[in-house]
Amino acid sequence: MADPELEAIRQRRMQELMAQRGMGNPQNSEQQKAQEDAKSDAEERRQMMLSQILSSEARERLARIALVKPEKARGVEDVILRAAQMGQIVEKVSEERLISMLEQINNQTTKQTKVTIQRRRSVLDDDD
């Protein structure tokens, strides 16, 4: 292939990739930026609310849990925020209370595993 043909193919491919990612349309990138800003603002408000509700030890424990199991930490945060919005939490949540909440959530979400073993007969086994 000649260099101009190769360059034309590359240009078309780049345009396709940019269109898929939404980079070709400046309005779309502005919308994405606005969505990202809204998400970051919401996350910031969420963290501020949690810092008001949780004691420093409880926040540290929740941060350690988030390192290992982010989805579990997010669920616990949701439960705490919902309880605070309903007025069930009137004082800061201590580490001991957080531990008890975690144990309750673990008991509720424990999955039962069942193992079944199916043995296959070997071709060489003879039952005759």
Written account of the structure:
One of its GO terms (cellular component) is nucleus. The chain folds into 2 domains: 7-53; 55-101, Helicase, Ruva Protein, domain 3 (Orthogonal Bundle), CATH 1.10.8. The chain has 5 helices and no strands. With 128 residues, it is mainly alpha-helical. It has helices spanning 3-21, 26-53, 56-68, 70-85, 95-108.
Give a concise summary:
By secondary structure, the protein is an all-alpha fold. It is flat, with a radius of gyration of 27 Å.
Q: What descriptive keywords fit this protein?
A:
128 residues; Helicase, Ruva Protein, domain 3; 2 domains; mainly alpha; DNA-binding protein DDB_G0278111-like; PDCD5-like_sf; 5 helices
The residue fraction in helices comes out at over 70%
Whole-number count of domains: 2
Number of helices: 5
Strand portion = under 5%
**Separation of termini?**
69 Å
Rounded average pLDDT: 83
Protein name: DNA-binding protein DDB_G0278111-like
GO cellular component, one term: cytosol
Region (Disordered): 1-45
Organism: Populus deltoides (Eastern poplar)
Topology at a glance:
Elements: H1 3-21, H2 26-53, H3 56-68, H4 70-85, H5 95-108
Helix pairs in contact: 2-4, 3-4
